[in-house]
């Protein structure tokens, strides 16, 4: 990598991204996470390719955050990846928030990351009573003290939170998870005058900020998303369209089955096949069905 300019070296160093991991990421991801131009990313890849071949064994697997539900962990190879943006989509009331609350607990446990969580609400008030109920079932650990809550209603508030408030908190507290519940609550609009080009730029700004936090601090980033009916395709699909979907690293889908059983489906992910697990929601949390 001797031919790389000093500014690229510095950005790689500051991001704490391992050189072997560069080959795992897309050009768009590297542009966002390292704040590089497309030309600089191309130069970086060429420099990497001039090096000797490395064994696939030497490329590290993505670390993951357990969901606390063995069946879901099984189809996700251990849980939520600490790499890029994970979206959990599904109709209202299927358990997206329940799973995110459980993640806010598991991230604090020894089996998780031993760190706190940031929970950003964009639609409803934070369900503190339910979190307290779950915490009592998982551990005596004082999880309520390590979940930091923010209520946000628009893009500008979310941008300031991701670029200013979260980095400031990270200087004081160890954080392993950021949840935005839901991303559609900030961006969805039924207005006929939506500037979709501007909205796409806003998507990119938010995801770039979150990717940088993920890389620099080893944080799992999870967003929930609402769904809408697509009359052309005759099915429901996540809100915000293709411009948003192109920025998502992993997409998981939750749907209802009979008798309270939910399906958790891997829709797409760079390192996972399409699989489905079943779970139920009980007083003690998200658990295996049956």
Write out key terms for the chains shown.
Rad51_C, four-way junction DNA binding, 290 residues, 2 domains, single chain, Rossmann fold, globular, ATP binding, two-stranded antiparallel sheet, alpha/beta, nine-stranded mixed sheet, XRCC3-like_C
Explain this structure to me?
It comes from Photinus pyralis. This is RecA family profile 1 domain-containing protein. One of its GO terms (cellular component) is replication fork. Its main location: nucleus. One of its GO terms (molecular function) is ATP-dependent DNA damage sensor activity. The protein is an alpha/beta fold. It has two domains: 6-56; 64-288, P-loop containing nucleotide triphosphate hydrolases (Rossmann fold, 3-Layer(aba) Sandwich). Helix content is 38%, strand content 23%. It contains eleven helices and 13 strands. The chain has helices spanning 6-15, 19-22, 27-34, 38-49, 70-75, 96-106, 128-138, 155-170, 184-187, 196-217, 241-245; strands spanning 64-65, 80-81, 85-89, 116-121, 147-151, 175-181, 220-225, 227-230, 235-238, 250-256, 262-268, 276-282, 285-288. The strands form three sheets. It has a nine-stranded mixed β-sheet, with helices on both faces. Strands 1-2 form a two-stranded antiparallel ribbon. A hairpin with a 7-residue loop joins strand 11 and strand 12. Helix 3 crosses helix 10 and helix 8 (155-170) runs parallel beside helix 10. The mean pLDDT is 88.
């Amino acid at each position: 990598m001797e031919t790389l300019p000093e500014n690229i070296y510095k950005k790689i160093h500051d991001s704490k991204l391992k050189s072997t991991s560069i080959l795992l990421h897309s050009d768009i991801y590297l542009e966002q996470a390292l704040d590089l131009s497309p030309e600089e990313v191309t130069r970086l890849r060429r420099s990497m390719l001039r090096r000797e071949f490395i064994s696939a064994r030497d490329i590290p697997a993505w670390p993951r955050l357990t969901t606390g539900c063995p069946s879901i962990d099984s189809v996700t190879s251990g849980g939520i990846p600490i790499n890029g943006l994970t979206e959990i989509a599904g109709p209202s009331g299927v358990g997206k928030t329940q799973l995110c609350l459980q993640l806010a607990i598991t991230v604090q446990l020894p089996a998780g990351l031993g760190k706190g969580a940031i929970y950003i609400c964009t639609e409803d008030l934070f369900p503190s009573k339910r979190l307290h109920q779950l915490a009592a079932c998982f551990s005596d650990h004082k999880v309520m003290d390590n979940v930091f809550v923010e209520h946000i209603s628009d893009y500008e508030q979310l941008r300031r939170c991701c670029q200013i408030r979260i980095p400031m908190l990270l200087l004081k507290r160890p954080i392993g998870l950021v949840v935005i519940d839901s991303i559609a609550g900030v961006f969805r609009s039924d207005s006929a005058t939506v500037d979709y080009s501007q909205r796409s730029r806003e998507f990119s700004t938010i995801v770039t900020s979150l990717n940088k936090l993920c890389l620099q601090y080893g944080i799992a980033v999870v967003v929930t998303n609402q769904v809408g009916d697509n009359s052309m395709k005759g099915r429901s699909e996540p809100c915000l369209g293709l411009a948003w979907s192109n920025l998502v690293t992993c997409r998981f889908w939750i749907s209802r089955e009979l008798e309270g059983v939910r399906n958790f489906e891997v829709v797409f992910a760079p390192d996972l096949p399409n699989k489905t697990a079943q779970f139920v929601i009980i007083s003690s949390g998200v658990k295996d069905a049956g």
